[in-house]
Amino acid sequence: MTATEQTHDPALCSAALVRAFDFLGKRWNGVILGSLISGPRGFAELRRAVVGISDSMLSERLTELAGLGLIAREVDPGPPVAVRYALTGSGTALAPALGALTEWAGRHLPAERCSED
Question: Mean per-residue pLDDT for 81-96?
Fold first, then answer.
C-alpha cells in the first residue's frame, strides 16, 4: 500500500466534492470567478461578461463570493466612486480547476448542452 492509499479517505473526498459542487454548481458562481481570472472588473464589466445574469443576481452572487473570501470588493472613492471586484488568494487558487473544467467542457460537452436551461 502506498502512502497516498493510506491517507486517502473516500468519505472525506466525497464530502469535499459535495461542498465544492454545491458551491460551483450554484448558477453563475463559477462563471463570475472565471470572469475575474484575467483581473479586476467593475460591476458593468462583469454584467457584460456574464451573459444572461440580472443586476440583482450579480449583486447577490458578488456579495456571497465576497462573504466566502473568494473575491474582494475594492472601492475607489473617486470622484466618481468606482467599485471593482478582484479575486483573493482563495479565489485565484480556483483558477486551475476552472481552467480544467472549461477545457473538459470544450472537449466533451456539445455546445448545445452549455446553453441556458
Answer: 95
Q: What is the rounded average pLDDT of the residues 45-49?
A: 96
Residue 78's pLDDT is what?
Answer: 81
Q: Enter the pTM of the model.
A: 0.78
- Tell me the β-bridge partners of 22: none
**Partners of 42 in beta bridges:** 84
Residue 33 is predicted with a pLDDT of 96
Round the CA-based radius of gyration of the chain to a whole number and report it.
17
DSSP states of the chain: --HHHHH--HHHHHHHHHHHHHHHTSTTHHHHHHHHTTS-EEHHHHHHHSTT--HHHHHHHHHHHHHTTSEEEEEE--SSPEEEEEE-HHHHHTHHHHHHHHHHHHHHS-GGGGS--
Contacts of 101 (CB under 8 A, 6+ apart): 30
Q: Phi, psi (5° rounding) for residue 26?
A: -70, 125
Domains of the chain: 27-110 (1.10.10.10)
